[in-house]
From TrEMBL:
Residues 122-132 have a biased composition (Basic residues). Residues 1-192 are annotated as: Disordered. It comes from Chiloscyllium punctatum (Brownbanded bambooshark). Residues 1-15, 25-121, 154-174, 182-192 have a biased composition (Basic and acidic residues). This is R domain-containing protein.
Amino acid sequence: RERESARERARERARARARARARARARERERERERERERERERERESESESERERERERERERERERESARERERERASERERERERDRARERERERERERETERASERERESAREGERARGRASARGRASARGRASARERASARESASARESASARERASARERASARERASARESASASARERASARERA
């Protein structure tokens, strides 16, 4: 009986050890499951961090695109301002040429007036020498006045024609500038 009791106690101890080992294995499995859950949570956090980094990179790319678009718009505005300045310079050059032409016409009128004065003095002297020659001189003066009037009319027509040509050139230049601006904007949109 004593031996049987000893064997029973030994079996009980063996069962206790087996139960302890089973509990230890269960605890280890639970710890491993917890470690795996933690690893999964870490992977999830890393994935979310990477997603956030990618979203931030995309936002930065969008900001850069917007900055580039703003720079392109500023370049277009600067180009348009330069074209407008060039048109202003062209108009000023044309006005200067017109002033020079007007100055030349005024000088020519002064020279013609001087010549007419000289002719008038000659005619007056001729009248003093002979009344017949005086009548001829009167006819000459009338003819000279008609010639002067004709020259003035021709000069007025030439000035009107010059103004019309200048206006036509300016309109053509404006159309060409508008066309160039449209092409440049189209190119800018294509680049964008």
